[in-house]
Amino acid sequence: MWKNHTLQPGTAIACRTVEDGQRRMDKARAGLLSLDGAVLVRMAVDEELGDYGEPEYLATMGDIPGMEDDMAA
């Protein structure tokens, strides 16, 4: 999403399965969603404890500033 000529992150969308996330990524690649870029990430989450595991980057598309830095960490 562009705001004041700067690419800004949109709201994260939680998908129940990797397949659901992949379908959404496929729609983005096909131009069916209004996105400049997207990242498909899998992460273990324990909502009761508020514990989040390390992200596993499964796919990317488009323009994602700083993504190389995030994936290298």
TrEMBL record:
This protein's name: Uncharacterized protein
PROSITE patterns registered for this protein in UniProt: PROKAR_LIPOPROTEIN
Organism (species): Acetobacter tropicalis NBRC 101654
